[in-house]
Write a structure and sequence with these properties.
The protein is an alpha/beta fold. It is 32% helix and 16% strand. The protein has helices spanning 2-16, 47-62, 116-124, 168-180, 236-245, 256-261, 265-268, 289-292, 304-313, 335-340, 348-373, and strands at 32-39, 70-74, 109-110, 143-150, 153-154, 157-160, 164-167, 186-192, 208-212, 222-226, 231-235, 273-275. It has a seven-stranded mixed beta sheet.
Amino acid sequence: MRLRSILPLTLLLLALNYLPISTWAISDGHTNNWAVLISSSRYWFNYRHMANALGMYRTVKRLGIPDSNIILMLPDDVACNPRNKFPGAVYANKDRKLDLYGERVEVDYRGYEVNVENVIRLLTGRHSPSTPRSKRLLSDDRSNVFVFMTGHGGDEFLKFQDNEEISAFDLADAFAQMHEKKRYNRLLFMIDTCQANTMYSKLYSPNIIATGSSPLGKNSYSHHADKEIGIAVIDAFTHFTLSHLENICKTSNATLKGFFDSYDPVAIKSEPGVRSDLFNASLADVLLTDFFGGVAQVDVLPPQEEQDADDSAVPGRAKEAPTRAEGTDRTPWTGEQLDRGRDLHVDGGQSVKAWVAVAVVAALSLLSSKIAVL
């Protein structure tokens, strides 16, 4: 009788030995997403650049990246500018159906905090000890990072508030430090400015995809103006990108290749470019939501009883609440965040292994029960 009762448990433990540590696994190895959204232009007449960044902010939030994983940099507050006919609001379409500012916008860097030094410190993680966690990019080697920049630029530079510039060399070295310090798994760099494609010409770190709105010697143009606001409200390249992303959801199978192939120079009013020679995979295999969406990870943890027993076995060890490791998501998943990030990107191979193991356990348990009867 004792042998018969132990047999199912033994078979169960043997089958569990083949289960992966994490039953739900991300296909490219990433377990979290981060977005860095930067508008580098100040003053009312650059309204469209702030609308570009806010439009991208709204989109990545809708697709599941929580505010805790978004760094938003706005050098000016056009929503509260005295020339704004619609106080407290920012619109990117002349029909003004969607307020991009709203009540849930969390601006991490504003005003003169938006400068080249802070951008470099943010990307490389070289902050002063007094910098709060909300102003840090707490990514790691399992993070897919999306970096978006918009403003006025030229050949291998982007201006910051008409006061200083970040060069293509600065950006390349910052990304290199990110790679050396294991601050990303894969990185997507997108920039909307004049001669934007020159800003990724000096990149040399692996696993980076880059795209820009215009080549060397070409300008990037606004899409349309609002007569009531009295100024251009969004750039053509960003408008095209947001319109494309508006048609996908968290569970979409749309790929980066499909997105890049849809670029229309006539609609964008320029010649956007893509650089993928540093990337380690085919763009046809990379989902848009791998960068613009959010993921949630589920790990198989030891039973609480075993953990409590281990703690009590060591004299003087107090039981402590589990804490998040440095470099992972900064806040627990709230109900609202779960709604935004409910979809899990599952690695088919790992998932199949898990379900096969479960099926084997069930079959062996049934077989052992029949043996027990005999």
